[in-house]
Amino acid sequence: MAKPIIAIVGRPNVGKSTIFNRIIGDRLAIVEDKAGSTRDRLYGSSEWSGKAFNIIDTGGIEINSDDDILRSVRMQAELAIDEADVIIFMVDVKAGITPADLEVSQILFRARKPVILAVNKVDNMQLQEDTYEFYGLGFGEPIAISGSHAIGIGDLLEAAVNSFPEEVEEVIEEDVIRIALIGRPNVGKSSLVNAILGEERVIVSATAGTTRDAIDTPFEKDGQKYVLIDTAGMRKRGKVYENLEKYSVMRALKAIERADVALVIINGEEGIIDQDKHIAGYAHDAGKASMFVINKWDVVEKDDKTMQVFSQVIRDHFLYMSYAPMLFVSAKTKQRLNKLLPIVNEIAEHNSIRVQTHVLNDVISDAVAITPPPTSNGKRLRVKYVTQVAVKPPTIVVFVNDRELMHFSYERYLENKLRAAFDFTGTPIRLFTRSKRDDE
């Protein structure tokens, strides 16, 4: 089941990004802190009152610089209407109601989506009285907030989560592998879907998915049941979507959350751009089994080293996904497509691996014996016990004497030893360090 989406909408300089950062706090995925990722803060995740959600900062959506402000704001609002379950409409108490605010309000009023009106920069009680003007926008009681002083954020989130749609659990058989094809526009997602289904000729049905516009297509091959989640099937409203590659991130995240395996589609003819890294990073964050599928390989001019060189380029750009296999294909000629589903089956299984506790401890004990942890301020990390606590992805807790002594490089060393001992190809591993003080 996909998380609900909140979008923050408003004209420039009303403080959208400040509120966005307040809401996500330190919950934003940390892939951007690792080499190989350049993801921005357009999309984040958080929770309130036990309800998890994703949140869009439309201020991070860059419209062409030659667009006027009203047109830019209107486009951002339209994006939010398409993607969000709840919209936070932000205005500035000190500026009052502006023409741009009225433009957005007219769009949102017709959207038939819950709209929470947030009046920002209410830094004192005197300004509180100025919020009443905003009743005129037609969205009920304004919520006074201050991003710079963190005032009213709780009230804002409470109103937002109370407006979420009712949760509807998806009913999918356990033996079904759900595959999301993700990637920026024009990488060939639709062509790949058609090629996979056309080759197998076993399509059962094509029905509207349970999550907005996504098209779910069940099929079966060699006794294994699959569901293709095709984000490429979603509608577009005008040329704005062709110009905003960041829009594909919004589509991709919803598909990733519902999937077991993410196929990161890359256009082999055009090569890698930053948006490919953004989208792949979300699959990594979500802990999904993943692989790179380089499409349109038939039109790439090649010599005997082209594939090797392109493979290294992918590894260099996606250092944090070194575990993900890659396959060079052509949806047009069906080149190597027969290898795709076997790899999907394999990495889906790896994502569900559960290792016995005593075997895990043997592997980690040997690793520590071979390379003992370095000392820090005269103290040495001691690994006491290791256990796996979850699958999808494999999640392992390492109990130590003091988790502050676990350096990132040594954690990476332990992960590499685990990968050498067990076949985790295609899946991230999550390692958490805990010490006795965590349970006190």
From TrEMBL:
Origin: domain of life: Bacteria
A GO molecular function held by the record: ribosome binding
Amino acids binding GTP 1: 10-17, 57-61, 120-123
InterPro entries: G_ENGA, GTP-bd, GTPase_Der, KH_dom-like, KH_dom-like_a/b, P-loop_NTPase, Small_GTP-bd
CDD domains tied to this protein: EngA1, EngA2
Record domain EngA-type G: where: 4-168, 177-352
Assembly notes: Associates with the 50S ribosomal subunit.
Family: Belongs to the TRAFAC class TrmE-Era-EngA-EngB-Septin-like GTPase superfamily. EngA (Der) GTPase family.
NCBIfam families per UniProt: GTPase_EngA, small_GTP
The protein's name: GTPase Der
Gene: der
